[in-house]
């Protein structure tokens, strides 16, 4: 079974989770992306968030939240995405950059427009009492 390895930031504000949508895509995903050769999770998170949202992660504040697996959107049956999630503080103003067309704060009423992996993360955060 093929597995896509991704690193993502969980940013919660007003009990909603930050999501992004890439150009030409319909679904929203957590900000982050795939690791480049020999990158650590911290390096991947820092690079991806700077590229996608023009922010700088304060590496001293990165905290592991959890790892989630789900069927990968838009891929063949049997392909999974593994998303390792972190929280972190950052500097800069969130704004879409490069392949990101839109950012949006989402909640459980938006399950129809998010990835399968995001749905699992929503459920996890709801059980922890961090979102409604």
Q: Could you please describe the fold and organization of this structure?
A:
The chain has 132 residues and is an alpha+beta fold. The protein has one domain: Nucleoside Triphosphate Pyrophosphohydrolase (Alpha-Beta Complex). The chain is 19% helix and 36% strand. 27% of the residues are buried.
Task: Please give a quick description of this structure.
The protein is an alpha+beta fold and 132 residues long.
Give the SSE order as H and E letters.
EEEEHEEEEEH
Q: Using the alpha-carbon principal axes, give the shape.
A: globular
Task: Using the CA coordinates, give the radius of gyration.
Answer: 14 Å
CATH architecture: Alpha-Beta Complex
Helix fraction bin: 10-25%
Structural class assignment: alpha+beta
- Helix segment tally: 2
Content of β-strand = 35-45%
Average pLDDT confidence is 94
The CATH topology name reads Nucleoside Triphosphate Pyrophosphohydrolase
Biggest sheet record: 4 strands, mixed
Strand neighbour order, sheet with most strands = 4-1-7-6
Low-confidence residue ranges: none
- Name the CATH class: Alpha Beta
Please report the distance between the alpha carbons of the first and last residues.
Answer: 34 Å
């Amino acid at each position: 079974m093929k597995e896509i390895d991704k690193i993502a930031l969980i940013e919660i504000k007003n009990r909603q989770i930050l999501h992004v949508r890439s150009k030409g895509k319909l679904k929203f995903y957590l900000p982050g992306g795939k690791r480049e050769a020999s990158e650590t999770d911290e390096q991947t998170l820092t690079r991806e968030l700077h590229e996608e949202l023009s922010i700088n992660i304060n590496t001293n504040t990165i905290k592991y939240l959890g790892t989630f697996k789900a069927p990968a959107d838009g891929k063949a049956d049997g392909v999974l995405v593994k998303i390792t999630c972190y929280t972190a503080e950052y500097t800069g103003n969130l704004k879409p950059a490069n392949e990101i067309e839109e950012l949006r704060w989402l909640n459980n009423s938006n399950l129809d427009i998010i990835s399968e992996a995001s749905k699992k993360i929503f459920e996890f955060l709801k059980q922890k009492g961090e979102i409604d």
